[in-house]
Each structure stands twice: as structure tokens, then as C-alpha cells.
Amino acid sequence: MRVLVIGSGAREHALLLALRRDPQVTAVIVAPGNAGTARIAEQHDVDVASGDDVVALAREVAADLVVIGPEVPLVAGVADAVRAAGIVCFGPSADAARIEGSKAFAKDVMGAAGVRTARSETVDSPAKLDAALDRFGPPAGDPAWVVKDDGLAAGKGVVVTADRAAARAHAASLLDDGHPVLLESFLDGPEVSLFCVVDGATVVPLLPAQDFKRVGEGDTGLNTGGMGAYAPLPWLPESLLRDVVSNVVEPVAAELVKRGNPFSGLLYAGLAITTKGPAVVEFNCRFGDPETQAVLALLDSPLGQLLHAAGAGTLAEFGELRWRDGAAVTVVLAAENYPGRPRVGDVIVGSEADGVLHAGTARRDDGAIVSSGGRVLSVVGVGADLAAARADAYRIIESIRLPGSHFRSDIGLRAAEGKISV
């Protein structure tokens, strides 16, 4: 099986490594890729948001399976174009991808499916903003305002703050740019990321993970695309995980089938385990970054065959997934000033070590690997338990040199110390 992966981040690097472990995968191709993926896969340039260009490349490389990593091409309908060309594709249709592309659509689906989520209100006019803010946040009994961009924002369109002025400023800036705003009630409790491979009404859950969105230690500072993750979750009871699959993911998948928009691909449920039980924070239509890096490091089942089964409509016949013992931790190395405008073009030393996955990197004409984005590298450590996996990840990241770079030193720490419970 020849597999073409669309994307250029650490998520795609992790997918390629896992695909290479599948004995039925004979070739891995990536487009556009980065300096790290070029070492392990055939690499091509492509406009990821162009269905015609992706189909042309898939035909050129004789791909048996196309795996679309990022959300932008999925929301743009690239998976539809690939399937229309008669090529098996892992990734939802544009209609189904609205589960991530529009938070208002996701709320409507969850409401119809009877899935618990935060109370919300969409604001599409500055004139309605102040009255809406009064219905959320501290005046309404919540500890903070939750303000979201209704569309795609690469994980950085959310502000959670107890400062009304900051909440209003973020909402106003989104509205000024023509983006509707979603206000939500605050959900307490630890968060969980659950990936599920979905084929219509068939749902196959992967290991649960937890990611870290804030840029600073102790979950402080601005939201980012994710500064790290770990899997599995030693504090999450198996019964609670089964409850989430049965009462959250499966009803949403069934509702999309009912609407004539069956989901085929990776459905990602972001959850808060509140004092009243699990509640959905958001749904995504693809593998999440940086959780993918940790989860796939522990997968023992053949990934290519799994994704092909979902794309071909035979997931129900695949059987249970196998997992390696132990734990995995992902730590993101970010460029100076990220999540603001990152400093780029600096030479990276140590980026080709085992366990290092590339995201914002490029190779210069002289062969040097340089930074080219905000989240530059993901470092994945594995071990017999969470403490050992953390030690492995931080051992690797301490050996990497990039001027001005930063990373969080507390990824998975509270869980390793037994300080998270439900």
C-alpha cells in the first residue's frame, strides 16, 4: 500500500513514522512536508487546500490511500475531491468537517444528539456584545469568560479570562475582522482529548490523552496550538472512557449519519471531566497536535490498515486495537516570541535525534536545518510509566539548541505526581 500524507507538521511526521511500521505499507509520501519528514518519506510540494492539486499528486505517486492531516483542506473539501477521483481517503467530507469548521454547527449537532456541552451564544454584531457578555462570566456565576472564534483559529482563537475588559477586547477584535464570536459558560475539571477513528456509525477509540494549550508553566499565559501532551491518562477510569464513547462520540457520529453527512476519518472530542460528568469543550475533524505524537508512539496495531479500513468503509471488520505498555510524553519546542510573531531562520542543533519530530523547520541550501514557524519541534519520550516518559522527553529536548526557544517543563507533571483525580 502506497500512502500519501498531506501536511507539514509534527503530526504528519508522527503519522509517517507510524505508517512505516505497518508491514502492508510499501511507500510513504508526504506533501509538502518539512526538513524532518524529508528524511523518512518521498516529499513533494502541493497546495494543501486545492482538491485538484492533491488529486493530481495522488495520481502521480500512485497512492492507494490519501491521509489528510490539517483541518483547513478538510473544511475546504479536499477529501471530497480525492474520493470523487476514486482514491481511498482518510478524512471527512466538507459537510462533516463543519464539526470543527463551525462551532455553532457543532453545538447544533451536540444539541440534537443529546450530548452535554457548555451553554453558548453566538454573537455576530458588536451592538449585541455587551448584553451577551453580561449573560456569561463572573456576573452570571462563572469564574471566567470563555470567548471563541466561531471558525478555524489553529487553537489560538480562544480567550479564557476573569477580566471583562480582556474578554470584550478579544471578542471585539474578532467581530471587527468579520468573525462571529461564540461565548460559552466555563467548564471546570481536567481536560481530556479522545481520538476516535470513525466510519459512519462505527467508532473505534484510541488512547485518551491530555494536552497543554497555555504557553507558560502552570497553565499560564496565552493559548497556543499546544505546548505538549501525554498518554495514556492514569487518573481516568476505564468506565468513564467507555461512557464518553457511548454517550458522546457515538451519538454525534449517529447524528451526522442521520443528517446525511456521515463522518469518515478522525473525530477528536475535547472534553472537560466536570463535577457533573464529562462535557464537550470542542470537536475537531482530524488528528490533534501535539496529542497525536504521544498517542501514535504507543500504537501497536498497523496504522495504514486501520486508516484504509475507515476510508474504505470496512472499519467494523478491523477488530480491537493493540497498544504498547507504558506511557508517552510530547514536549513542544517553540520559537522565540511564540505564540506571537515567531523569530525564524535560526539554525537548530540536535534536531535529527531519535524522538524528535519536525514542524516549523526547513533545510537551507547549505544543508543546515533552520526554524520556519512558531512550534518548531515536538520531542517524544517513552517509558514504562509517565515519570520515565517525562524523563526521556526532557533528556532529549535539553540536547537541542535553538536561539531564543522555549518549552514547558511541566508537561504531565501533575499526573505523574498523582495530583489529578476525577
In brief:
With 422 residues, the chain is α+β, with helices and mostly antiparallel strands.
Structure description:
- By secondary structure, the protein is of the alpha+beta class.
- It is 30% helix and 26% strand.
- It is built from 13 helices and 22 strands.
- It has helices at 10-20, 51-60, 71-75, 78-84, 94-101, 103-113, 129-134, 164-176, 238-258, 291-297, 303-312, 386-397, 413-416, and strands spanning 2-7, 27-32, 42-43, 65-68, 88-90, 120-123, 145-149, 158-161, 181-184, 191-199, 202-205, 210-211, 214-216, 220-223, 228-231, 264-274, 277-284, 327-334, 356-358, 361-363, 369-371, 375-383.
- The strands form 6 sheets. Strands 3-2-1-4-5 form a 5-stranded parallel sheet, with helices on both faces.
- β1, α1 and β2 (27-32) form a beta-alpha-beta unit.
- α1 (10-20) runs parallel beside α10.
- The termini are far apart.
- The mean pLDDT is 95.
Topology, element by element:
Layout: E1 2-7, H1 10-20, E2 27-32, E3 42-43, H2 51-60, E4 65-68, H3 71-75, H4 78-84, E5 88-90, H5 94-101, H6 103-113, E6 120-123, H7 129-134, E7 145-149, E8 158-161, H8 164-176, E9 181-184, E10 191-199, E11 202-205, E12 210-211, E13 214-216, E14 220-223, E15 228-231, H9 238-258, E16 264-274, E17 277-284, H10 291-297, H11 303-312, E18 327-334, E19 356-358, E20 361-363, E21 369-371, E22 375-383, H12 386-397, H13 413-416
Parallel strand pairs: 1-2, 1-4, 2-3, 4-5
Antiparallel strand pairs: 6-9, 7-8, 7-9, 10-11, 10-16, 12-15, 13-14, 15-18, 16-17, 18-22, 19-22, 20-21
